[in-house]
Structures are given as structure tokens and as C-alpha cells.
């Protein structure tokens, strides 16, 4: 991607919030502001930053968490699983290599020492405050004990695979800022490794808190290596996708061994959370037969296909405890997949969806027995009035485990605009406690997102997440809104741009109507023109009533208005009311 | 505009729903659908159509309501007000003409005969069912008595100036489909008459139910003439904008006489509803002094400026009954402007806003005494959790008069994306009873919308309005969603496109990934690729369980699952649970 595209806005700079005592530095974006017309200086605003320190794709990021992990002394390096070219698909086997092998440093995989658990939940439950928790507390501007206790209770997770030391700790839980995920990944049909790394950096530049690599084509292993080594945010995957590639796309050929091997492969690479469709039980499959859109989750239908082919229970369910034991050794978090989520508003909140949720609740509690962090995935397509029930039911059944939803879309009639149909549902579901929102791009249902779609999806979801933070009264959430509103009121156009989620677009739109540089400082805008300006009149009002005489003036008005009301509150003679009024008045 | 742009989608055609008995034909858009893969035919879907019969801009539309109006025998033609070049601004006076005089037929203005009232509310209250009401009932697919009674009660309006016989009757009220308005209009800074007519046709093509002409530059009168003569939807204006032009932009110079003359001018042209900022009372102005963004409504600040300059009560309030008498003679509806609406989430639901609402409620009831139709305007910028209170308070205070809101925007941080920030609030406020939503385009706060912005704004608001209709359980609202979902499930790509709000965009997005024509009928999509397809597996499930053997099969499953549960619902040996599990389990 061109550097100019990745360059940050001139008014934005990298700053750090630091915890000297524990030697922790959290990067934030500092937005410089102009002085007010009054001459009053405006302090710069610091905002949450997801883009990390920036990396050269072929080198990757520094493993800054490595020291923290080593200090705990509960992990060991080991040879790890042997590289298998089939991990990158049949064409890699033919070629004897992936199409673009990872050339950067190959970290030696770590795992928990025998009998140990290395999850943040494990530490939290034992009262240990980790550097990861301190990092999160600084980042969220909250007490570290809130972080520890929410993680211990399972109401929040800090996805942080010990083999992804490049990632900056972040927390997903309803007591914290609402997070968003961006999906990237190649497919059998299209796209390349560099494009995917590009999308990763692009997504985190605009505010993605986590990124899921949903690759389904060739070079899955190597694409993921490039992504993980370059990612400052947690990486999620759906391992069944790669497992399916290993059995040539035939769901019936899937086995626990192939799946387990794939999970180990991804644990060693550093995947932070994995979607596991263990709630798609054999007996739930028939419940989808009469749906308008059946099963639309790819993972869900893979497992349903497997269950039907073998008439056996879902092997992800029957082997769930083994998965817990594996995840506990790397601190991989479960993202319990909703394989039976509705694919249309017609199928919302139906028996299949809620039956699966009951099972996800059971599995949540089982994972907690292993100190494994868990979030639960949610839909999908839900009409607006049925959205709230989804999060309230999940929170109750799953004892507050973080909810992670895709939208939901509140109507099916707008393909091409599903970032919008879903942002409406996402704001509603986040308002009532959903902790992370998976973005939807304009290409949803139609094709694979390109870079513009990724940006549009991320910014649309930042809007939904932030609107929910405001609605929840999250401390400090309104600061950016208020700073931008003050800039708008004072015609500090440059500050309006730099405070906005997408400064370049805001400035470009402004310039389409008023390109001239002076217009950026002019005390009028294109809606009203130079001759008249509503903001100017408001300034006059403030000058008149915001001053120290304000109180007298307002008092004067008030008394005038009391006289007025005393006089009957009418400036009309009664007869004017009846003029030409032969008809009865309003019923 | 190029005809290709205005051409309708090949699968869309103009059809009519007719009431033979009363000779009424309501145009609808019929969407032809392909057969299902099963061979089953899919009946075409008929959807609400706002674009009218189509017109040649220089000729205008046929005055099809003229006969209905004449038959009532309560109106008279008259000379009308004399044309004054100043109506088109000083440059027109210099030139001796507007820049593009209207060349089409100039209808002779009508008004009510002396002592008569010609409003739909007047007829409804007297138990008369007008052709306008029958047209609306067909259009909404509801009982005409519901239309009459809601209009009689003031809970719905049918904006239909007797001097705009070209318009197709539509209804605004919470018992009916949620409507959307698109704002167009030139400004002192930019744009031309033909551009505005272009935008009108463009907005109604995409689904605008009404259009407001907010012109503030030159040629206001003539621009409006072109718009009204070509508009199949009701036209709204804010007459104070033109009045301000007539006094050279100096709010202090405004007088009741200038305003009254402007209102008559617009009544005679055929404006269907007018925004009147009569609720901005002198004593409320100081309440805005301490706001973050003061007064942002242009009309509100004009009147506030006038009140302060003269230290007198708002002349729109003091002359309100005269306005009612005028509106009753033409059937112009009030859109009571919320001049003190908040311009930032920080100012939401404050004393100034709610004080004005109290006055709007008083004025609503006074207008009803004259049988004048009324809707009440609402904000603006409101955090998500405070949105609902706005509509519930307005509905209670105003005895159910239709609420007409701008958004509201649920955050201030996304200039350039305010169509989205506001669609979120719009869906919420419409869900609880707002009858019409004023669109917000991506250019809001930044500049004037161009054609693309108008389209984006309209489609975004169709989404919000439709999502609210679904949430309200409006009869039939889900039909389009279900038809599209079925098409999606059956891989009827062409039907997915033609059923969507923006078929061309949906198809273009699809083709970016899979351009080949065969792909449109291929039983896979780009997300999964040809090798694996979740929808196909769902089809297999349906074939297996949707069949007549389904019940046995499902029953079989269920019994299996009961055994399974009976056996303790575990497929694990107890000890596997405790393995490596020295720690306490979840608290």
C-alpha cells in the first residue's frame, strides 16, 4: 500500500500513556487542536489507538510481550509440529513451497510447562495482575482491579496467545469499550498474501481491535504467518476452514485428528482466538429444515454436513475437553461459533438458534473449568425489535461471558449497503451489552471486500461501537464528540476534520463545495453561505446571554414571560380564534 | 440527467393497483422474479412507488388531481398575487428575469371559497372520504376508514395543496408506512435550477416520499416553480429562507408582512407543507446560551436573531392564527419547526429543546381548530439512549400529531458518514412512532449534497424506514425481505439484485468478484468458492428433513438425543474433566 495512504493525519501523532512503576507504555493517538477564536487554547485530545508501532511486512513486529511471558516462568520452548506443505494446500505440495514463504524471523513455539495453565483467566483467578492486565487498564483508563476481576469472572477476555508476543493487549467485555473485529482472508476464488497483510494494516489503521483471518484458498498457513507476525492486534481464525482444505473440501472426510492437528498448528503460530462450532449438535440440524435460509454459517454447515454424513455427534462437541486442554497451554480463547445463526430476518430467534445457544452456554462453563477464556458468537440477521432479546438471553445463559455478534442486519433488502443495515442492529445489541462487533462490509452477500470496503466497514463499525459507548455512558466516551462539536461551533474546520473518524474524507467533502483554503477558517459554511450564518447568531446570543449580565437578562426575560403567561398566554383576541371557524374543533 | 441513469431496472415495471368503482389507479413497481430451481414459479412482487409517471422537466406533470379538487366545488380560481422579480432575488431584478424562467403551463391559482376550508382534515372530520384518501388506502393496502379516521384525529396528514394537482397523495402518520424526505435546493454558494429538478427526479426514483426545496440563493421562486410542476410527491419549504432573501439576509429587517406575502406566494405555487419556526419564543432564546452548539437550526436562529433585535415575541407565534387561516384555504400543512433542536449530542434533550416542544404542542392544537394538518419536527443530534424519549414525549404532548425528525445522529465524531450516524437514530425513533424521517446525506455539516449524496441519503433512509416498519410489525413489510432471502438461498442472483433497494450497485459489487455471466446462476458465491457451499449443504438438509420423512427422522433424532441426555448428557468420562485441573473451577 502506498505510504501516503498509511501516513497518519498531520494533526495526529503517536503518544504514550505510561505506567513508570511497571515499565508499561501504551500507544495512543494525540490529536492537536487549534486555539479557539477567543484565543483560548484547546488541549490536544488523546484517543485509543489500534494501529500499533507500524511494521515492515517482510520483517514483522517486535515481540514486545516476550519478556513478560518469559518472566512468568511457566512456559517452555519446543520443536513444535513439523511443517507440512499440505498446510498451504495442494498447489504448495506441487510447488514444494507456498507462493510467498515467510522470510522474517520464525519464533520457536512456546507452550505451557506440563500441568501448567498460562491463560490470563488462570492468572486473574489466582489474583495475579499481569503486565497484560496493566496494559489494558492504562488503555481503557480504568482500575486494573476491574480488569483482573472481570477476566477472573469470565465476563471479559484478553486474547493473548503466548506465541503472538507482537500483539498489544486489549480486552473484550461489556464493562469496557465496545470493540470491533475486521475479517480478512483469501478465498478459493481470489486474492493474494500481500493483499491480506495490506488489509490487516489498513484495518488496524482505521480502528479494528481484532482481525480474523478467514482464508479458505491456497497458502493458508503462510498467509496466516505473515498476518500474525505483522499484527499488533489479536488474530482470530476458524480452524475448520483450513481443516476442510486438508481434506479437499469434503466435509464428510473431516476427522478429529485432522482438526486437532490444525488447531495445534495455529496455536503454535500465535492465533489468539478460534471460532469453534461445537454447538451444532446432530439433533439440532433438523430444526433448520423449514427455515427460509437454512444454515448460512460456513462452519455451521460444515459440521452439520459432517453430522449428517456420519450420523454421529459433532466431534468438536465430543472432543471439547481436549480442546480446552490445548487452549489452556497457549492461552487461546474460544469464540464459540453460532453455526445455526439465522441467515435472514425471517429465521431470527428461532428454535435452532436458541437450542445452539443453550449448548454454547454449557460449553462456556466447561471451558472455564480449564481457565480457558471464552466469548460467544451471535447473529446475524435479526429484525430491530428482536435484537435486544439476543444479548440479554446470551448474557443470562452464559453468566456474562462476552458476546461477539455479526451485525445483526435489521433488514435483508439492501445488499450493497449491509454495512449500514447491520450497523443499526450492532448499535442496539452493543447498547445492551455485546462486547465486540464483527464488521460487515458493503460487499457482504455479494463478494470479497477490497481495501475500500474494509475501510468503510471498519469506520461504520467504529460509529456503531462508539454510539453504544455513549449510550452506555462509558466514562469519557463523549469527550471526542464534545471536542468536535465545539470545533464545529467555533468554525475550527481543521479541528473538525482531525477529530473525525475519517479526517481525509471529511476534508475532501468540505472542499468539494468550498475548495478555497480560506474557507477552512471562514465563519460560515456552504449550507448557509457567507451572508447569513446560524452559528454566528448563536455566537451573538452567547455574547449577549453567556456574559456576566446573562442572569439579569434571563431574569428579565423570565419576568416578561410571566406577565405574558399571566395575561393568558395569548396575543390574540378571542374572536380571531373563532373567525371562519364554524366547524367543531379537534375531537 | 442521462436517461440510462433514470431508466428503471429491466426486471422492474410500472403496474397499477386500481379501485375501479372510484376510478383510482395507484402506480406501483412490479418486480418480476425467476422460477425457483425446483421449477416452482415465483409471483412478481409489487412494491410502493414514489417516482410517479415521469415527466419532461420543461413541460411538467399532468395535473391529475385537478378533477377531484374541482368536483368538490369549494374552491375558486383567482388572479393571485402579482409576480415580483424580487421573489427571485436582486440579480433577477437587475436582469428583469430569473435565470431560467418556467416555460411550462402556468396554472391559475385556486383558493377556498369564502368561509370554506379545503383541507383533507376538514373533509375527514366531516366524514367525507376523498379520492385522495382512497388513493392513499390503495397505496398503503389498508382500509380507507383507517385513513379517514387518522387524518380526522390529527394523527396523520395527507399533504396536498390544491395548487399542486400533479402530486400523488401519500400519508404521513405512525399507523402507516414510515416515510422519508429528501432535501434539495440551491444556496448562495452553489448550484442551478436544472440540477435541482434533476435531484428531485433522482430522489423520487430512489424512494423519497416528499422533497423539501431549501433553496437560499437566487431564483428561489422560479426554481420552486420548476420543482413543483415536476413533482409527483408533496413539496415542503421553509418560507423564512425566501423571506430573508427579500430583506437582503438581514434577519432584523424581517416583518410579518414580508413573511405573509412569501407564504401566499408559495401557497399559490403549490407548496404542500411549510416549516414554520413559531416555537422559538423570546424567552427561550437565553436557554441556548450555555449550549455547546447554541442554535443550529437556520430558521431557529433567524427567528432568535429577530426576537433579540426587536426584543419582541416571535411574529410567527403572534400571527399564528392568521397563518392557520391562510393554510386552511389551500390545504397547506404545518411542519412545526424545531428551531431550538440540539446541534450536538451534548445539547440533547435540554431545557431549550423541550420548552420549544411544549409550545409546538400548543400550536398543534390551535392549528387543528382551523382543520389545518400539522406535523411536528424533531431533532437532530441525540445519543442513542435518549432517542426514544423524544418521540414518546412529542406523541404525548401533541396528541399523536405526526413526528418528523432529522435523523437523529447518535454521535458527532463521523462527519462524512452522518447518513450512517443518523440512520441508526432514525431507525430507533421511527420504531417508537416517528412518522417521517428527513434524510441526512454524507455531506451533512460539510457541504451541499450532489446527486450521489442524494441517492446515498435516500437509500440509507429507506433502510431505516423499512427496518422500523419491520420492527413495528407493519403488515406485509417483511414480504420483500423474505422474497430476497429466498432468492439468496436459491442462488437466484438476478432476483437478489432486482429485489434490492439498489439493484445496479448490488450487481456491480457481485461482478467485481465474479464478473462472469454464468456466475450469476452458479450455485456458489465468492465467499466460499465453487468447491464448498454452505447454502448447498442447507439444501441437502432440506432435502433430507424438509421431505415427508422429515417428521420420522426428526422424531428419531429427538429420541436419540433423549437417550443421550438420559445418559447424563456427557460423552466424557468424569476423570477427563479433572485432568490437569488442580485449580478451582469458575467462581
Automatic annotation (TrEMBL), chains A, B:
<comment type="pathway">
    <text>Cofactor biosynthesis; thiamine diphosphate biosynthesis.</text>
</comment>
<feature type="binding site">
    <location>
        <position position="241"/>
    </location>
    <ligand>
        <name>substrate</name>
    </ligand>
</feature>
<dbReference type="Pfam" id="PF01964">
    <property type="entry name" value="ThiC_Rad_SAM"/>
</dbReference>
<feature type="domain" description="ThiC-associated">
    <location>
        <begin position="10"/>
        <end position="76"/>
    </location>
</feature>
<dbReference type="InterPro" id="IPR002817">
    <property type="entry name" value="ThiC/BzaA/B"/>
</dbReference>
<dbReference type="InterPro" id="IPR025747">
    <property type="entry name" value="ThiC-associated_dom"/>
</dbReference>
<feature type="binding site">
    <location>
        <position position="183"/>
    </location>
    <ligand>
        <name>substrate</name>
    </ligand>
</feature>
<feature type="binding site">
    <location>
        <position position="212"/>
    </location>
    <ligand>
        <name>substrate</name>
    </ligand>
</feature>
<feature type="binding site">
    <location>
        <position position="377"/>
    </location>
    <ligand>
        <name>substrate</name>
    </ligand>
</feature>
<dbReference type="Pfam" id="PF13667">
    <property type="entry name" value="ThiC-associated"/>
</dbReference>
<keyword id="KW-0456">Lyase</keyword>
<dbReference type="InterPro" id="IPR038521">
    <property type="entry name" value="ThiC/Bza_core_dom"/>
</dbReference>
<feature type="binding site">
    <location>
        <position position="528"/>
    </location>
    <ligand>
        <name>[4Fe-4S] cluster</name>
    </ligand>
</feature>
<comment type="function">
    <text>Catalyzes the synthesis of the hydroxymethylpyrimidine phosphate (HMP-P) moiety of thiamine from aminoimidazole ribotide (AIR) in a radical S-adenosyl-L-methionine (SAM)-dependent reaction.</text>
</comment>
<feature type="binding site">
    <location>
        <position position="404"/>
    </location>
    <ligand>
        <name>substrate</name>
    </ligand>
</feature>
<comment type="similarity">
    <text>Belongs to the ThiC family.</text>
</comment>
<dbReference type="InterPro" id="IPR037509">
    <property type="entry name" value="ThiC"/>
</dbReference>
<feature type="binding site">
    <location>
        <position position="445"/>
    </location>
    <ligand>
        <name>Zn(2+)</name>
    </ligand>
</feature>
<keyword id="KW-0004">4Fe-4S</keyword>
<keyword id="KW-0411">Iron-sulfur</keyword>
<feature type="binding site">
    <location>
        <position position="533"/>
    </location>
    <ligand>
        <name>[4Fe-4S] cluster</name>
    </ligand>
</feature>
<feature type="binding site">
    <location>
        <position position="381"/>
    </location>
    <ligand>
        <name>Zn(2+)</name>
    </ligand>
</feature>
<keyword id="KW-0784">Thiamine biosynthesis</keyword>
<feature type="binding site">
    <location>
        <begin position="338"/>
        <end position="341"/>
    </location>
    <ligand>
        <name>substrate</name>
    </ligand>
</feature>
<keyword id="KW-0479">Metal-binding</keyword>
<protein>
    <recommendedName>
        <fullName>Phosphomethylpyrimidine synthase</fullName>
        <ecNumber>4.1.99.17</ecNumber>
    </recommendedName>
</protein>
<feature type="binding site">
    <location>
        <position position="525"/>
    </location>
    <ligand>
        <name>[4Fe-4S] cluster</name>
    </ligand>
</feature>
<keyword id="KW-0408">Iron</keyword>
<feature type="binding site">
    <location>
        <begin position="297"/>
        <end position="299"/>
    </location>
    <ligand>
        <name>substrate</name>
    </ligand>
</feature>
<feature type="binding site">
    <location>
        <position position="277"/>
    </location>
    <ligand>
        <name>substrate</name>
    </ligand>
</feature>
<keyword id="KW-0862">Zinc</keyword>
<keyword id="KW-0949">S-adenosyl-L-methionine</keyword>
<dbReference type="GO" id="GO:0070284">
    <property type="term" value="F:phosphomethylpyrimidine synthase activity"/>
</dbReference>
